[in-house]
From TrEMBL, chain A:
Residues 5-241, 258-500 form the ABC transporter domain. It is a peripheral membrane protein. It comes from Paracoccus gahaiensis. SMART domains: AAA (SM00382). This is Sugar ABC transporter ATP-binding protein.
TrEMBL record, chain B:
InterPro entries: ABC_transp_permease. It comes from Paracoccus gahaiensis. Keywords: Cell inner membrane, Cell membrane, Membrane, Transmembrane, Transmembrane helix, Transport. Pfam families: BPD_transp_2. GO terms for molecular function: transmembrane transporter activity. It is a multi-pass membrane protein. This is ABC transporter permease. The keyword Transport applies. It comes from the Bacteria.
C-alpha cells in the first residue's frame, strides 16, 4: 500500500489554542484511513489543512514525496483531493445536478451550460450510489441524508484520488450507511485513499484499514487496523489522565425548584417538542440525552421563552411562570446557555465586559437610566476571577478569546442574573479538555450552591459523569428516565433511538 | 492573569501609535481640512464664516446623530430627508393657518406648541418605521424607502407643491418668536447650535451610560444573541427610529425658521449626507459599532469641506466628486483600523 499524502511536523495555531501540535500523518492510498478523537481533538482541523481550507502554521505537506502548498481549496482539488464536510456546503435553491457541477459546469464553448450532459452524469453517479434521486430535484426537497449523498456524489464527480469524509453517517439511515460503505469499498479497490472520520467506533472497526487517534491536537496512536480493539482506541483517545470532572460532590437536594408540564412546540408536519414534562430539585443536575434533532435544544428554548407559540405550563419554585418574554423569564430566575455560542450566546463585536453584563444591566443601573461603569467593571472582574476566565483585558472584543474562555463569559453572563434554574445546551461543545473540566467543576459547584441545572449533551461519558438524573429524548418526546445509578449506556442509547422506527408508538412519558 | 499592561508587552509600540492615529483619523482629517482652508480660502477663519458654517453643519449633524443610532442597531433610515420636508410644512401650515376643524373657527398655536406638535409628528413617523420593521418584518431599507416617498408626497399635498411664505408668525398668537429658532443667538452662539449641543450630549449619554445605549449596540452586533440575553429587541429598534424621526423634525423646524418659509422639497437627499457623516465618523454599516462624537466630527468634515470648497470657488461638480472620494477613503482606512485592532486584541489575549 502506498502513502499518497504525508504531513510532517504540522502545527496549526488558532487565536488562543493550538489545534494541531506538530503532527506526522500518513494517508494511505487504496485504503480507508480512519481518524478518531474527541470533539476538539483536531480531526477536522487536520482535514481542513489537507483540503486546503486552512493552511498549516508550521510544517509541510508532501504528496508522492514532493512538497505541495495548498493556497486554497482549489489547489487541493487540482491535486485530486475531495472533501465532504460535516456541515453541508450545498445550495438548497439549486437542483441536484447544478449542485454537483457547481464551479465546474459542463459547458459548450465555455459559455453555454450543457444541462443534458450534467443530467446524464448525475444519473450515472446516482446509479453508482444506488440512489433514486432525480437530477432536477431541488436540493431543498431532499432529506438531510439524501443531501449528504449528493455531497458525496459531488466529490466522486471530481475523480478524487483522496476523499475525506467528515462524519458522513451522522445524518444517514442504516440502509444509506450500508450503501455508503459499499461505495467506499469500491473506491478503495480503485486505489482511492479515503479518510473517514466518525464517532461511531464500531463503524471504524468495520471499515478501517489504518487508524490514527488524535488527542488535544497531537497524534496519540497510528497503526494498521489489524489487532485494534475498542479498548485500544479508547485508551488512545482519552489517555491515562483520569477525567477529574467525574468526581461528584455529594450534597443533599433541596425542594423542587422547577417543573415543566406538557411542553409542546409545533413545527411543520409534527412536533419539535411533544408533551415534555420534567421536574428538577434545587442542587440537582438533570442530564438530557438524545440524538441530533431530538428536540432537546428546542425544549430549552421553550423554557426560556424563545418560541412564542410553545404551549405547556412551567413552574418555578412552585409558582406558575406566566411571563412570555425572555427578559421576564430571566428576571424570574431562568438562564440559558445556548448551544451556538457564536450566534446565540455572544455579541462578538462587543467587549468581554459588555457581553458579560448584557443580561443584568439592571443591577448596575440607577433609576433605570444611569449605568455605574465602575460597579460594572468590579462585578465583571469578580466573575472573571471566580470562573477563572483567562483574559488580558476585559475591554478586548469577546471574539479574541478561545472557545473555552468564550463559554466562561457566557456562563458568567447567565450567573450574573442570579438564576434559580440554569439551562445549559451542550456546554462543552468546541472547547478544549482543560476548559471542559473547569466548566464541569463550575457546574458541580453551582449545583452544590443550590442551583437547579438542566443540561443537554450528546456525550455519554459527560452525561454519566455529571448527571444526578437522566432524561432521554427522541423525536421530541421523553423516551426514558433514569437515575444515575441504574443508567447504563446501552439503555440510554436504546431510549434515544426509540420513535425512529416507523411502527413504534411511544406512550407519553 | 495579567491586566491591561499585557498588550504593551506583546504589541510593538509603533503598532500602538498607529492604532491611536487610525482611531483619531476623522479628527485628524478635520484639522487638516481646517488648516488647508485657512490658507487656501480667504476669510475662512472669520467669526462670521465660522458661525454660518457651523449652522450648515448643525443641520446635517442632527440627522447624522439619529442615523448613527439606527445604523448601530443594524438598520438604516432613508426617510429622514422627507421627514425634514414634511415637518417644515407642518410647522408652516400651523403658523399660517392654525388648525381648522371646520366649524368656522380655528385653533392657533404659539411657538412652543408648534414645536411640540412638529416633534410629535417626527416621532410618530419614526414609530411607523419602527412598527413596519419590528411587527411587519419589512426590511429597514424598504420600510424607510416607503416612508420616504409617502412623507415627500404628503409634504407636497399640504400646499399643492407651493411654498408657505412669510412664516414670521403672529404676535397675537405668540408664534412670532418662531424665527428665533433659526435666527436667534444666545451667548454669542446661534440657537440651533445650542440645540445641537444639547441633542449631542443627550445622545452621547444614552450611548455610553444607559442600558438603552448598550442594548442598541448589542442588537446591532447580534440580534439573536441580544434577544436570548433578555434584550427587548423590538423596543430598542422602535426607539432608534423614533429618535431619528425626532432629530429630523428638529431640522425641519430649524430650516423653516431660518428661511422664514417652508418648501415641500426641503431635505431632499439629506439622508445620504447623514449616512455619510455617520460612516465617516466610524459607524459600521453592519451594525454594532459607532460613536456619537465620531459622527459629529464626521458631519463637520463634510460640512467644512463643502463650504470651504465653495469659498475657494471650486465648481460644485468637483465638490461632489471630492466628497465621494473622502467617504470612500474613510471607509478604506476604517477597514485597515478594524483589522489592526482585531490583531492587537488577539495578540494580547493569546499572551494572556
Amino acid at each position: 500500500m502506498t502513502v499518497g499524502l504525508q504531513i510532517r511536523g504540522g502545527s496549526k495555531v488558532y487565536p488562543g489554542t493550538r489545534a494541531l501540535k506538530s503532527v506526522d500523518f500518513d494517508l494511505h492510498l487504496g485504503a480507508v484511513n480512519v481518524l478518531v478523537g474527541e470533539n476538539g481533538a483536531g480531526k477536522s482541523t487536520m482535514m481542513k489543512v489537507i483540503a486546503g481550507v486552512e493552511q498549516l502554521t508550521e510544517g509541510r505537506i508532501l504528496m508522492d514525496g514532493a512538497e505541495v502548498r495548498f493556497g486554497g481549496p482549489d489547489d487541493a482539488r487540482r491535486h485530486g483531493i475531495g472533501i465532504v464536510f460535516q456541515e453541508l456546503n450545498l445550495f438548497p435553491n439549486l437542483t441536484v445536478a447544478e449542485n454537483i457541477f457547481m464551479g465546474r459546469e459542463r459547458t459548450r464553448a465555455g459559455i453555454d451550460i450543457d444541462r443534458a450532459a450534467q443530467r446524464r452524469e448525475t444519473r450515472a453517479l446516482m446509479a453508482r450510489l444506488e440512489q433514486d434521486i432525480h437530477p432536477d430535484t431541488l436540493l431543498a426537497d431532499l432529506r438531510v441524508g439524501q443531501q449528504q449523498i449528493v455531497e458525496i456524489a459531488k466529490s466522486l464527480a471530481q475523480d478524487a484520488r483522496i476523499l475525506i469524509l467528515d462524519e458522513p453517517t451522522s445524518a444517514l439511515s442504516a440502509a444509506e450507511v450500508e450503501i455508503l460503505f459499499r461505495v467506499i469499498g469500491d473506491l478503495r479497490r480503485q486505489g482511492v485513499g479515503i479518510v473517514y472520520i466518525s464517532h461511531r467506533l464500531e463503524e471504524l472497526l468495520r471499515i478501517g484499514d489504518h487508524i490514527t487517534v488524535l488527542r488535544d491536537g497531537a497524534i496519540t496512536g497510528a497503526r494498521p487496523m489489524a489487532g485494534v480493539d475498542l479498548d485500544w482506541i479508547v485508551r488512545a483517545m482519552i489517555g491515562g489522565a483520569s477525567k477529574d470532572y467525574a468526581k461528584a460532590i455529594d450534597h443533599p437536594f433541596g425542594p423542587e425548584i422547577f417543573r415543566a408540564e406538557d411542553v409542546c412546540l409545533p413545527r411543520a408536519g409534527g412536533m419539535a417538542v411533544d408533551q415534555v414534562s420534567l421536574s428538577l430539585r434545587a442542587g440537582e443536575i438533570l442530564g438530557v440525552y438524545g440524538l441530533m434533532g431530538a428536540g432537546r435544544s428546542e425544549f430549552l428554548e421553550c423554557v426560556i421563552g424563545r418560541h412564542s407559540h410553545a404551549t405547556g405550563r412551567l413552574f418555578i419554585e412552585g409558582r406558575p411562570l406566566t411571563a412570555r418574554s425572555i427578559a421576564a423569564r430571566i428576571a424570574q430566575g431562568i438562564a440559558l446557555i445556548p448551544e451556538d455560542r457564536k450566534n446565540d450566546g455572544l455579541v462578538q463585536i462587543l467587549s468581554i465586559r459588555e457581553n458579560m453584563t448584557l443580561s443584568s444591566l439592571r443591577a448596575i443601573t440607577t433609576a433605570g437610566v444611569h449605568m455605574n461603569l465602575g460597579a460594572e467593571r468590579r462585578t465583571v472582574a469578580g466573575f472573571v476571577k471566580r470562573l477563572t476566565v483567562k483574559i488580558a483585558s476585559m475591554e478586548n472584543p469577546v471574539s479574541s478569546l478561545s472557545g473555552g474562555n468564550q463559554q466562561k463569559v457566557v456562563i458568567g453572563k447567565a450567573l450574573m442574573t442570579n438564576p434559580r434554574v440554569l439551562l445549559m445546551d451542550e456546554p462543552s461543545r468546541g472547547i478544549d479538555i482543560g476548559a471542559k473540566a473547569e466548566v464541569f467543576r463550575t457546574m458541580r459547584a453551582l449545583a452544590a450552591e443550590g442551583l437547579g441545572i438542566v443540561f443537554v449533551t450528546s456525550d455519554l461519558e459527560e452525561l454519566m459523569a455529571l448527571s444526578d438524573r437522566i432524561i432521554v429524548m427522541s423525536n421530541g418526546r421523553v423516551t426514558g428516565r433514569f437515575d444515575r445509578r441504574d443508567a447504563t449506556e446501552t439503555a440510554l442509547v436504546a431510549a434515544s433511538a426509540k420513535g425512529h422506527a416507523p411502527a413504534s408508538q411511544e406512550p407519553a412519558a | 492573569m495579567s491586566d491591561a499592561a499585557t498588550p504593551a508587552r506583546t504589541v510593538p509600540s509603533s503598532t500602538q501609535a498607529l492604532l491611536v492615529a487610525l482611531k483619531a483619523r476623522t479628527f485628524i482629517a478635520l484639522i487638516l481640512v481646517f488648516v488647508f482652508f485657512a490658507f487656501a480660502a480667504p476669510n475662512f477663519l472669520s467669526t462670521a464664516n465660522l458661525v454660518i458654517m457651523s449652522k450648515h453643519v448643525a443641520l446635517n449633524a442632527f440627522l447624522a446623530i439619529g442615523m448613527t443610532f439606527v445604523i448601530i442597531s443594524g438598520g438604516i433610515d432613508l426617510s429622514v430627508g422627507s421627514i425634514v420636508g414634511l415637518c417644515g410644512m407642518v410647522a408652516g401650515y400651523l403658523i399660517l393657518n392654525g388648525l381648522n376643524p371646520g366649524f368656522g373657527w380655528s385653533i392657533q398655536f404659539n411657538t412652543v406648541e408648534i414645536c411640540l406638535i412638529v416633534m410629535v409628528v417626527g416621532i410618530a413617523i419614526g414609530a411607523v418605521n419602527g412598527f413596519l420593521i419590528t411587527r411587519l418584518n419589512v426590511a429597514p431599507f424598504i420600510a424607510t424607502l416607503g416612508t420616504l416617498y409617502v412623507c415627500r408626497g404628503a409634504a407636497m399635498l399640504f400646499s399643492d407643491g407651493r411654498t408657505f411664505p412669510n412664516l414670521s408668525g403672529n404676535p397675537d398668537y405668540g408664534s412670532d418668536t418662531f424665527r428665533l429658532i433659526g435666527a436667534g443667538t444666545w451667548a454669542g452662539l446661534p440657537v440651533s447650535i445650542w440645540m445641537l449641543i444639547a441633542v449631542a450630549l443627550i445622545a452621547a449619554y444614552i450611548a455610553a451610560r444607559t442600558p438603552l445605549g448598550r442594548y442598541i449596540y448589542a442588537v446591532g452586533g447580534n440580534e439573536r444573541g441580544a434577544a436570548l440575553s433578555g434584550v427587548k429587541v423590538n423596543r430598542i429598534k422602535l426607539f432608534v427610529y423614533m429618535f431619528s424621526g425626532l432629530c429630523a423634525a428638529l431640522v425641519g423646524l430649524i430650516i423653516s425658521s431660518q428661511l422664514v418659509a417652508a418648501h415641500p422639497a426641503t431635505g431632499q437627499s439629506f439622508e445620504l449626507n447623514a449616512i455619510a457623516a455617520a460612516v465617516l465618523g466610524g459607524t459600521s454599516m453592519s451594525g454594532g459599532r459607532g460613536r456619537i462624537g465620531g459622527t459629529i466630527v464626521g458631519a463637520f468634515v463634510i460640512g467644512v469641506l463643502s463650504d470651504g470648497l465653495v469659498m475657494m470657488g471650486v465648481s460644485s461638480f468637483w465638490q461632489t466628486v471630492i466628497k465621494g472620494l473622502v467617504i470612500i477613503a474613510a471607509v478604506v482606512v476604517d477597514q485597515a483600523q478594524q483589522k489592526l485592532q482585531a490583531r492587537v486584541a488577539l495578540q494580547a489575549e493569546a499572551g494572556a
